[in-house]
Amino acid sequence: MKASIVIPAYNEENNIADAIKCALAQIHDGFEIEVIIVNNACTDKTPMIARQFHVKVLDEKRKGLLFARECGRKAATGDVIVNMDADCRPDEKWLSKGIRRFNDEKVVALSGPYDYYDGSSFFRYGSLYVQKVMYTLANWFVQLPFIHLGGVVNGGNGFFRAKTLEKAGYNISLKLWDDVLGEDTDTAKRISKYGKVVFDSSVVMKTSARRFERQGAMKTAFRYWLYFFKILFKRE
After folding, report:
1. Which CATH number fits the domain that encloses residue 54?
2. How far is it, in rounded angstroms, from Cα 207 to Cα 150?
3. Where are the beta strands (DSSP E) in 136-187?
4. Cys bridge to 116: 159, 196, 199, 209, which one at CB 3.0-4.6 A?
5. Structurally, how many domains does the chain consist of?
6. What is the span of the domain harbouring residue 110?
7. Digitized pLDDT (tens) for each residue of the chain, 236 residues in all
């Protein structure tokens, strides 16, 4: 089995080197990995820094997260597409914990909680607890046979079976704000039609709390949940 880690980046010169180092440091006994950086119309030194590492660097001129994810997906050669963000700092066992779940042929996607490592202790650990409990329950509930609305996926901590993701596709027609906040829910909903979406509380991704700090924790959390339900119950 081979895993392709896709990292979209827009003006991430202060973060991209650390993200790449963490991706390359993943323990991967029994499977191969490749790391793909997508330069999403950067105007800073992000692509130049990325090219200093043993990774693929692609250029996507259309600005938008899903354009970048799709560019990376098309170039990927792995059996599993793994989405990671430029401000993520996964522990070395993160990838192997997620990949092992794909030994179950019914599993088409997997995700886990975010650990906002640079947030306040209250926000960091409170959010992690809520995700481990509530997201796990929500993912189980929305996939009940008589409900089957989709699944729960954190965008920068998403694992997808490559062949299934190709069938399901990313919804690149989403508007920019939806693209930022609802793309993960939309992708989970699409791919859940083909199999099981797993939310594994042990597959933790360390990521930055910068968006919550910039936009306000309560306001951002409310918008996340709003778009989750909006897309979940949206008619096709």
Report:
1. 3.90.550.10
2. 24
3. 157-161
4. 209
5. 1
6. 2-232
7. 999 999 999 999 999 999 999 999 999 888 999 999 999 999 999 999 999 999 999 999 999 899 999 999 999 999 999 999 999 999 999 999 999 999 999 999 999 999 999 999 999 999 999 999 999 999 999 999 988 889 999 999 999 999 999 999 998 887 654 556 688 999 999 999 999 999 999 999 999 988 876 766 677 777 777 767 777 777 66
